[in-house]
Specification:
The chain is built from four helices and eight strands, in the order H-E-E-H-E-E-H-E-E-E-E-H. The chain has helices at about 1-10, 40-50, 85-90, 150-155; strands at about 15-20, 25-30, 60-65, 70-80, 95-100, 115-120, 120-130, 135-140. A hairpin with a 6-residue loop joins strand 3 (about 60-65) and strand 4.
Length: about 160
Amino acid sequence: MTKLLDLIKSGPPAPRVVLLPDHRFFVRLVPVTETATPAEVASQVELALETLSPFPPAQLYHGYYWTPGATQALVFASYRKRFSAEQTAGWGQAELVAPAFTALLGVEHEPATTLLFPSADGLTALYWDSGTIPAAVRTCTLAADATDADRALAR
């Protein structure tokens, strides 16, 4: 057991990721070339962000999810100035600032699967058709005092 722990500790540190409430990001599916390389997908996403957002990518927290061979990338972004200096103070070393639902993007799923992801301030639904990239992501914010009936209506 100690050897496994030593092995885990000796590896590179995990990347610092900050997961924020889903409703703070806009999410879009962006078409990409089916035979694209990861570098080409990154360029295509960057160009798409320039057309989708009124702000340049440098002023956004953004990222994307894509798997090789997929014809779409799931892009997420949020304007940096939506967050106060106090909120961002601990994010300086983060390699990625992303919506919380991104932690679920690589899960195995059957075709036509919808996954509901509840949080303290809302509910997010991820829907996969037959591909590896979610075909839709929808977020509904809920008040802190939301009732069970409010949550059922959001579902």
